[in-house]
Amino acid sequence: MSNFDYDLFVIGAGSGGVRASRIAASHGARVAVAEDYRVGGTCVIRGCVPKKLLVYGAHFAEDLKDARHFGWDVPDCKFDWDRLRDNVQAEVTRLEGLYGQTLENHKVTVFKTRATIAGPQKVRLADGTELTAERILVATGGWPHVPEFPGSEHAITSNEVFHLDKLPKRVVIAGGGYIANEFAGIFNEFGSKVTIVNRGDTILRGYDEQIRDRLLQISMTKGIDFKFNAPFEKIVQNDDGTLTVHLGGCEPIVADAVLVAAGRVPNTKGVGLEEVGVDLDDHGAIKVDESNQSSVPSIYAVGDVTNRIQLTPVAIREGQAFADSVFGGKPTVVDYQNVPSAVFSHPPIGAVGMTEAEARNKLGSIRVYTSDFRAMKNVLAGRNERALYKMVVNAATDQVVGLHMIGPDAPEILQAAAIAVKAGLTKADFDNTVALHPSMAEELVLLK
């Protein structure tokens, strides 16, 4: 028997931590996990799951109007924020229970309290209890970054946005990334006046330029206002509870809520990492090798806390790879090439592989194919909103190295198409596939 209390102690019961815990336990390890908030982590509790449910709810604003063009006599409908908010939170609670049940079924000990690292093989719980473990896995995820400026305490982040007492009539959103654009679309469909404020001049940095330009165009048509090169100076709370946002180079904006979506940082503060010699990078992320091992051999890390690719499926793969490698005798390394991603904006974006600019810089000679079209549903509904599909091909090999899409159900279509890109298929392979008609996805095999 081991001299340690546990073979593995996991700090953080999010997607990566839960996966690592249950897989390690299935391999016979004695596992404990500590979580100081709710089991499930960012994705399940205050991230992609409740956000996607709000996205579904927001879509009904346009679907109900469009239904009239399809013969349905739909009356003017009133949106009830309280009902959606409470239903979403009920679903979050249900999922939290399932995650906890999964850990229990695998005989993982769960400590519902904060844990910090007290030594290379020792953790300390909030009540002072110290436990030993042969290995420690840090899976504490990320945390919303809120820049410091006067009045920043009046702003909310993606942590609090799901719990608003009432729907704000006017919302200012700081940031240009996927969280900012997703919530801009959500609140706009719910009837709020939305202004996105960006200190730079680009939204969705890292996505293909044509795709992000199309989202900007559509968002502005839907009534979302954009302020670029406008850094926050201060937020002032008025006597009536409203907020006045002062920006550089712009007139002040009065709002009922200010959402800061300025990125996420690794959640490593106060965990005890530096005290035991774990190396962190300039952003506070834990430096790990391809085996998820830190500079301290007994301490590992997976997920957003390592700041490699901040996506839930990546954290899950890292947790699985760690457990299989260390406890299952199956050395596994995560492949970070061609990881698909989505932005659940209105309309949504799906992407995998290199953008056109990246391909030109890396490959030199490329071919680009696009399809700019109006979805059949939008035509009958009288909507001028156009979808855009883009394929980037290595001219020397005919291999498809990038797919970028914006339009209805783009992420759903992109997931399957990403398999083709990951497999290294060619443009000829797409061309040789018979179209599934009528569908939006058929555009991918009809590109000329």
Task: Give a short overview.
With 448 residues, the chain is an alpha/beta fold. Helix content is 30%, strand content 23%.
Global Rg: 24 Å
Q: Total strand count, please?
A: 21
What is the highest CATH level, the class of the largest domain?
Alpha Beta
Low-confidence runs of at least 5 consecutive residues = none
> CATH topology of the largest domain, which one?
FAD/NAD(P)-binding domain
Helix content: 25-40%
Strand content: 15-25%
Mean pLDDT: 97
Pairing-aware structural class of the strands and helices? alpha/beta
Q: What's the CATH superfamily of the largest domain, by name?
A: FAD/NAD(P)-binding domain
Overall body shape: globular
Structural domain count: 3
Distance between the termini: 65 Å
Count of separate DSSP helical elements: 11
Largest sheet: 7 strands, mixed
Shape-level CATH architecture of the largest domain: 3-Layer(bba) Sandwich
Give an overview of the whole structure.
It is built from 11 helices and 21 strands. With 448 residues, it is an alpha/beta fold. It has 3 domains: 6-144 and 265-327, FAD/NAD(P)-binding domain, CATH 3.50.50; 152-262, FAD/NAD(P)-binding domain (3-Layer(bba) Sandwich), CATH 3.50.50.60; 347-445, FAD/NAD-linked reductase, C-terminal dimerisation domain (Enolase-like, domain 1, 2-Layer Sandwich), CATH 3.30.390.30. Strands 1, 2, 3, 4, 5, 6 and 16 form a 7-stranded mixed β-sheet that branches. Strands 17-18-21-20-19 form a 5-stranded antiparallel β-sheet, with helices on both faces. Strands 10-9-8-14 form a 4-stranded parallel β-sheet, with helices on one face. Helix 3 (48-67) packs across helix 4 (81-105). The radius of gyration is 24 Å and the shape is globular. The termini are far apart.
